[in-house]
Amino acid sequence: MTNEIRHHLTDAILMAYAAGSLNEAFSLMVATHVSLCDECRARLESYDALGGALLDGIDADAQAPVAEDSLAATLARIAASDAGETAAMRPAPAPRGSVLPAPLRDYVGGDLEAIRWRPVGMGVKQAILKTGPGATARLLFIPAGTAMPDHGHHGTEMTMVLQGAFSDEDDHFARGDVEIADEEMQHTPVADISEDCICLAVTDASLRFTSLLPRLAQPFLRI
Amino acid sequence: MTEPSPARALWIGHIDRIREDKDQQAFAELFAYFAPRVKGFLMKSGADSAQAEECMQEVMATIWQKAHLFDPSRASVATWIFTVARNRRIDTLRRQRRPEPEDLPWGPEAEPDQEDVIVLQQESDLLRQALADLPEAQRDLVERAYFGEMSHREIADATGLPLGTIKSRIRLALERLRHAMNGSQ
Ligand SMILES: [Zn+2]
Ligand SMILES: [Zn+2]
């Protein structure tokens, strides 16, 4: 992927992902962005390196003595499962021309054609992805030139562009870019006129819509 | 507190021997060093002794089985074992799914560059040393982020660890890889 990504993940979220303490929905955001972004892939792997250095340097009194037959038991496990099935640790790259990177394809069951959109009004559609508790991940479809309802946030909202582009009061976001909105932020994202915009959005709390209509719609949107 | 470095440089050779020759002696040495660390790591993150033993054995078995996937131009052996242990912890102990970034499309000539390997390993060693040299309180903060389930917000800025050089090295390795791939397609 050679397009220029200008808006990246934060150190805090990359470190939390490397440490393994991020919930599933935000982990999906990290995995999706890193699939497209070598910059963040390198940053992430440097946080993995920090985990490795910690493991390596763990104090003698924090090491745990292993069971007496531990090595033999492990070799027996290896022998028992040595049927040559060694799945890769990471999903294979998405086929050329895919809009969705491999981690998202896993959730959707294919590329764009496999997404089961539900209309939420004004031409906007969404598909909520099935993830564990703590945060919600959804795909959003915003028709070219359309504005999302003006809203604020109760928690953190991360939005990554997969197709098309959008702008809000502050900046412009194209494929691979991540916008991170927090409690202080109030914005109205507008999709570029040239192409329908598809985004991955992850939120850890509901959004606050300022106009009445979207507020009524909120229970149905589950945002 | 820290073992002499010569032993460290050998771990890559150990992985090679496991991959090429299914060398049980090499595995036994790797196991003697890493198994108590992995088990300690799992217990620090909340597993009891029996769970941690079981989970650690799975981790070490995975290291044997996936030895061919280890890329020494992008990670030290300790880092690789850490990532396997971390993923096991999420999968087995927390019963959560962890979406992973897609793999890089390995070209036929994806042999790691020896220069990359050497420098990455040296920088991993520098990072380990820098971590050991951190004031107790800061090191504790980092440990809690990785071993416990503490907040990470301040940690990245607060510690000033030399992650930048490792990042540049990995970035360079990725670029070479992509370059090799484009040349081969
Ligand atoms: Zn990035
Ligand atoms: Zn928003």
TrEMBL record, chain A:
CDD domains: cupin_ChrR (cd20301). Residues 111-202 form the ChrR-like cupin domain. Transmembrane segments: none annotated. It comes from Marinibacterium profundimaris. It comes from the Bacteria. NCBIfam families: anti_sig_ChrR. This is Transcriptional regulator.
From TrEMBL, chain B:
The keyword Zinc does not apply. Pfam families: Sigma70_r2, Sigma70_r4_2. Coiled coil: none annotated. Residues 93-113 are annotated as: Disordered. InterPro entries: RNA_pol_sigma-70-like, RNA_pol_sigma-70_dom, RNA_pol_sigma70_r2, RNA_pol_sigma70_r4_t2, RNA_pol_sigma_r2, RNA_pol_sigma_r3/r4-like, WH-like_DNA-bd_sf. Residues 30-98 form the RNA polymerase sigma-70 region domain. It comes from the Bacteria. Residues 125-177 form the RNA polymerase sigma factor 70 region 4 type domain. GO terms for molecular function: DNA binding; sigma factor activity. NCBIfam families: sigma70-ECF. Belongs to the sigma-70 factor family. ECF subfamily. This is RNA polymerase sigma factor RpoE. It comes from Marinibacterium profundimaris.
